[in-house]
Every structure is written in C-alpha cells, then in structure tokens.
Amino acid sequence: MKKVVVIGEILVEIMADTTGDGFRDVQPLTGPFPSGAPAIFADQAARLGQPVSIVSAVGDDDFGQINLDRLRSDGVDISGVFIDKARPTGSAFVRYRKNGDRDFVFNIRHSAAGHLHETAAVKALIGNADHLHIMGSSLSSPEFVEANLKAAESVRGRGGTISFDPNLRREILAASDIAGAMSRMVALTDLYLPSGDELTLLTDADTADAAIAELLGRGVRAIVHKRGAAGASYHDRHGSVSADAFAVTETDPTGAGDCFGATFTVLWLRGLPASDALRFAAASGALAVTKRGPMEGTATLDKLQDFIRTTEGPIA
C-alpha cells in the first residue's frame, strides 16, 4: 500500500458541557480528547489499514502523551513527532452555541505544535512517502506553508500524489501573502477536497461549475466537494458523481470532515471507484458526528461496511 504522510498540528480538545457563548463564566468541561485536523486524518487513515505517518510536535506532558498513545494504538507512525521539552502540547477549548456554531480558544502558535523540527526521522518519512496530505488548518505560518510545499514538491517529483483540504478563510488569504503560496499548492494537487464555499476560494470563479472547470484546467485530477448534510460530489475530466449524506443524530461534528477526507483519500489511492469511495467517506463522516470528541468516531473499513449495510443495504 502507498505510504501517506501529513504535516501539522497535534492538539488536545477540551469541550464545554453546556451550550452558550464563549468561556467568560466558570463552567463544566470534558476532556482532554486527542485532536488536531492532521491527527484526526492520520488516525482515520490508519484505522482503514493504510500506512500513515504524521510530522508534528507535542510537549513533554500528559496532553502530548494522550495523543501519542492514541495514534500509536490505532496504527499511526509517530516517529516524526518531536517531543518539545520547552513548550506545552497545543490545545483547543470549544463551546457550542445554541445555533450550532462554535467558539474556540486555541493555543497553537506558542505551543509545541506551532514549531517544526526537521529531524532525521522526518526527512526519512517524507523521503519515502508515496502520498502527502495537506491540511489548510496547518498552514498557520510561513514556516508550515514552506514545509508543506517543499514536501509536496519532493513527493510529486518522485511520481507520488498530493491531496489538499483547504480549510482556509477568505480573510486569511486577504490579510497575508498566503494567496501566492496557495496557488503553488493547487498546482501540485492531485486530489482537492474543499468544503462548502471553499470550492471557489482559490479560484477566479463565482460559481461551482466554473470553479470545477478552472481547477481541472489547472491540473487538479479530481475534486471532492464536501457539503455536510447536503452530501458530497466528485468531479474529474470524465464526469461527476454525487452521494447523499447519511441521516444520523449529531452529537459533535468536529472532525467529521477530516474523517470523510481521510476515508475518501485512502480509497482513492487504492483505486476504488469514486461512487464507492464517496459512499464510504459519507459513512465515515456520519459515524464521526455521532461521538463526542473529534477523534472518537474514527472507524475501520468493516465498521463502515456494517453501517452502510444497516442503513442502505448491501454494497455492490
């Protein structure tokens, strides 16, 4: 199987037990949960049996250890994770509002996760990777942008492939010189995985159809447009296919998009037809939202198959 690597943050997430606005009152909390978009992606990929490694850093503390224990136990190669004795493990506090929006308090930039360490193990992982997955949430500084671009050029130069989940806001692009770097990123991308309005974010297009045509014209081989409860669609030069979302009771949506993306990417790398890969990815995202905690809903292929059979019937 192809070796996958992802570069980015490992965090703990601590969740408010009540709905409301922010954290200005004393309130009950639950956690810590292992988290960080790249870590969730890696964990889900590993649970599907894909060889996957993560390049990151954690503090020499309990929050770091809970993440390393979880990733290691689920099969992620953590040899590229640096133990930073000078900085704490990154953290995210989250509270849901009544309308479903979320308030966050992050400690990433000044944590272990905010710094890269190009160790011999990291060089080996990137040097041996067949596929690089890039998370927009990890492009938090010029250092991380350049590290991902350098790794993408290395993997692509050996005939490997790149997937890119943008997860970027328009104000970030407007406030810095990141737009040029993102254009380079798209030029290296084989599989593009935007959510909602992100489909047009890195294009000059105003409509979904125009954005798809532009991205394919720029060399992107395949696009998966994630639309949450509205389902997802796949597009390449040969056509398009769509899949509905599964109806489930939502407990916590954090991490669902990362589980969806990991599942689709893994099955795409294995050559599964797009319609089947979308179906499994939709199941992965659905299972993720039924569990409290961003990494608690990751699933094996057998579990996804059982969920689909129970919900829809046999898989063709």
Mean pLDDT: 93
**What is the percentage of strand-forming residues?**
15-25%
CA-atom Rg in angstroms: 18 Å
CATH top level label: Alpha Beta
Give a description of the structure.
It is built from eleven helices and 13 strands. With 316 residues, the chain is of the alpha/beta class. The chain has one domain: UDP-N-acetylmuramoyl-L-alanine:D-glutamate ligase, CATH 3.40.1190. It has a nine-stranded mixed sheet with strand order 5-4-1-8-9-10-11-12-13, sandwiched between helices. A four-stranded mixed sheet has the order 3-2-6-7. Strand 12 and strand 13 form a beta hairpin. Helix 4 runs parallel beside helix 6. The chain is globular, with a radius of gyration of 18 Å.
In short:
The chain is of the alpha/beta class.
Question: Main attributes?
Answer:
316 residues, 13 strands, UDP-N-acetylmuramoyl-L-alanine:D-glutamate ligase, alpha/beta, 4-stranded mixed β-sheet, globular
